[in-house]
Amino acid sequence: SQLHYSVPEDRKPGSSVGDLAKDLGVDARSLAARNLRLVSEGGQRHFQVDLAAGVLLLDSRLDREALCGQSLTCSLHLQLVMEHPLQLHRVEVDVLDVNDNAPQFPKPEVVLEITEVANPGTRLPLEVAEDPDMGSNSISTYELSPSEHFALSINVRGDGVKMPEIVLKKALDREKVAVHHLTLTALDGGNPVKSGTAKVTIHVLDANDNPPVCDPPVSKVYLEENVPVGTLVTKLNVTDLDEGPNGDMEYSFKISNNAPGKFTKLFSLDPRTGEIRTKAPLDYEESSAYEIAVRARDKGSPAMEGHCHLRVELIDINDNSPEIVLTSVSSPVQEDAAPGTVIALIGVKDGDSGDNGQVRLQIAKELPFKLVSSFKEHFSLVTNGPLDREKAGGYNITVRAVDSGSPQRATQKTFYLQIADVNDNAPNFSIPFDSAHVQENSLPGTFVFSASASDPDEGSNAKLSYSILDNGMQDIPISTYFRIDQDNGTIYTARALDYEQDKVFQVPVEVKDAGSPALSSTAVVSVFVLDENDNAPTIVYPSVPKGSAFHQTIPALVEPGYLVTKIVAIDADSGHNAWLSYHLQETSEALPFQVERRSGEIRLAQALGGSEDPHRLVVEVRDNGTPSLSASVVIVISPEENGVQDFAKSFDLPKSSPTDTNLTFYLIVSLVSVSFLCCVVFAVVAARC
Question: Where are the membrane-spanning stretches (predicted)?
Fold first, then answer.
């Protein structure tokens, strides 16, 4: 927004200029919290802000004439910058002129000469009085003391300056009055009126009675500001009706109060030809026009003068590049900043005028920002789309300013805008389902698997911690079987595992970042327990107490191959660890029996020959593990002459044990479960690939 105030130049320091808090529509008590700052565009500090009252105060006494010279308007431009949110307000303060300067002539006494043969109506130009005040407080009129021969005429120049001239109204007679003494008074339009005086002494001379005449007396020339030094501006056209020395003229600059001595540094005048040329570079931005007064003086006795007035108006050329001013930049900016968030306040300046001073600001179209015009020559850079630090951690923003001149002039300024991270990305496992294997009976602390996750955020938002979730799938919490390193995701066993009890574990792993709020994701690790030969075979038939023997009778007269009995054993392990083989322990004497290695059947190897002596056999059952484990049973076989011939009648073969049936069922279920889980894992991996 833009605020406008006015203050007289004679106002005392500490005076109130305007109620900022009221005009901005804010509570004065919030100005200090919002870090209100006052920035003067000219670099000089003339004002201050009373943060407690919210009032703009005058800091030093103002002098309009020192600040703005002869300018018709005098304005001081300020910028108010407030934060939370970031805002820029422009303040324009008009300095009002006060009639604090009296008119003053360049010289307290003016000496003029006029020939006695001068005709009535002859004009004698006078020096213009100076009054630094402007408007109605500047020079209003001139007055001349009463005179029989002279009167005062006031002409208005093209730039509005009033030029006093003494006009001869009655013929002169040097023999009667050789010198005339007058008083010229300059009055301003102030209230009260102020004045200044100068003494005018007019010497009446003889002879040369025709002054040089400039045609036209007032002329105007247009000149481009970039013309080279030495360029001809004009050649004055001055004539003198006299002859000889009275008609020879010499030209010189006449210094006026409007620009005392300034144009003489930029223009040169040939005293013989009257040619005016440039002698220094011209700058439209320094001054757009110059008023040049030339005196043409003949060589008569007494010499006579003519006066020419030339106004040189400069044509602006696009010779100034725009200037970019970064008033404020908010960096870093949160990546979740809403569209329209103010990022920077940018001002532009161009010393040229008209189209040459019209400036456009541009930024690259592919950037997620746009420029919004706040007010004249001030812009706001705001977000124009979503920001994503994971795609771009910052932007080099180049602001380009182009004017409308021909040819165009441009300048650019680049600044870096950092994007601050927001926890908008959850950690992600590379594989959501994975598997691992661990040997049963491994010591607690054995490495099982290393879960790995990544988070594209940064800082605390990307600091990850791992944990194991208890999902209730096992009767005992999963954390009693496994533990995880919360920093690197490495899974270890927390206790020894038993294949025969649990063959596979579903271990849900959660990874969580340290953002606020924290984000997380989970993965499932299938841990397969590898079997170890830690169970010896168990003989289920014949079932005898430990340390006892199984007694079996057979007929004494049976043929070789006769099935005596069958040993049945099981092993709680699986795979090759559960493959069983049956053996007879060697004795000192040969036994007429043999055992089938795989089936455990004990058969008669040779005829007993009618002997009824009992035979003691030790049958050993071994598994196929490493190292191999075994169990044994003692069987006493007694031949009897009246023994039953049919084996089936002498004893019944053992029926399938419920334990065997359950074990077989468990093995089948485990095999199917493992196969199904492997298929699911392979399918997920293939889909992600």
Answer: 663-687
